Amino acid sequence: MKYRNPIIPGFYPDPSICRAGNKYYLVCSSFQFFPGVPLFESSDLINWKQIGHVLTRESQLPLAEANSAGGIYAPTIRYHEGRFYMITTNVSHGGNFYVWTDDIYGEWSEPVYVNQDGIDPSLYFENGKAYFMSNGTDDKGIHGVVQCEIDIRTGKKRSPAVCIWQGTGGRFLESPHLYKINNNYYLMAAEGGTEYGHMIVYARSRNLFGEFESYPENPVLTNRNLGGYLLQGCGHGDLIQDFSGNWWIVHLAFRQIHQWVMHHITGREVNLVPVTFQENGWFTAGVNGTTRLEMETDRIPDSVIQAPVPEKRFDNTELGIDWCYMKNPRQEYYQIQKDSFKIRSSGISLDDDKKGEAVSFLGIRQQEMQLLIECTVTVPEQEAGLTLYMTPDQHYELAIRKTEQGCEIFKRLHIGDIVQESDNIRIAGDTAKLRIEAEPLTYHFYAEADSQSYTLGTAQTKFLSTEIAGNFTGVMIGLYAQGKESQQFAEFRNFLCRVTE
Question: 445-474: per-residue pLDDT in tens?
Fold first, then answer.
């Protein structure tokens, strides 16, 4: 069969995977958004359904200190003796920790912290023992992939942290994972930075703590030399064996907005490539060590059909699954119903990246580059509308605002230190239908009010790209209300986000 990469499009970076029963489970980073660590389920590795988030309580995920580059970094999910573990780093509060659950559809435990530095932590279990791994500094001050035994009940170290591998020489050694396959320990990691030079490398050893011998043909997977190819930045992967015995890597990569425009807006996404073990014990991955947008394999039956990104409306999406807050929310600012969302201003703006509360905001990820986005907004006071949000310094709005003279519709572009508003359109009522048509290179802005249609111009997508924003997320399609703190709710109805290509 043929399948398309990414298998999970949109801002879902740093994938990690495990299997339990007859299903696969996958988690991703979530940074400053709440709830944290999206959790997916699949029966075929191709079609994934989000079943929730791992971190659903503020006690698990305090985000008051997080800015747009803070919060939750790369998680790892593992299944051991009937229990799921998810380990990650809150870079804005507390560092490395893990949570666990015996019910993948239920709540997860309170955090168990590990007193070891580094990010991208991972867990490995063997012979009744648990081992922690990260890209950090060991007890002798040596930096690299460090490993120690921990008490899985308490998170306390049972052995010194030891640097077991320093990679192949590429910059930013990260995302280490350990596996035991056919009596060899395989240590897989990423190098090159999560950019255009990203790559997956690995080494092997007969012993848990090494010495590790690097794969002679490293990197095992990278698109760094595929100039002019839309899929770039392949790295940060996790190995999984399917139920037929085949091996795969899930990994992140991103799609450029154009073949020759080196910008991406939908974030780092989840991709899948097959892995093949050689007789000498080394493995290869992908298509000659690369990941392609279209992959062909005989490992998945032709009866498996890859589903497209579904249309999103209020009545087929859920808060806490599809919709996310920015930082920890105060629920009194939101009233959620099946056919409408109501949001009132917290007094914080989209431009604010300070510690504490965040703007009143609910968002979904932009998963494709050609979209129709619509919503009818009623504003009793202040300002409310649609935002295409990347960071406090990079975001676009199409909104309606109440002034002393009445209501007006406007478009605002915030790009670094430059903030520009379109000619404001005065309307008689307080309601407008807002519409954004997204294309790979351009957003188009429209509105309808008082039985009139208006065109509010365009904006280049590249100014919301990671390359300009300098962050690690992707564009969020948000509903927001801002201005002075208000007791009156803006109402959002008839939301639609549909792929148009």
Answer: 999 999 999 999 999 999 999 999 999 999
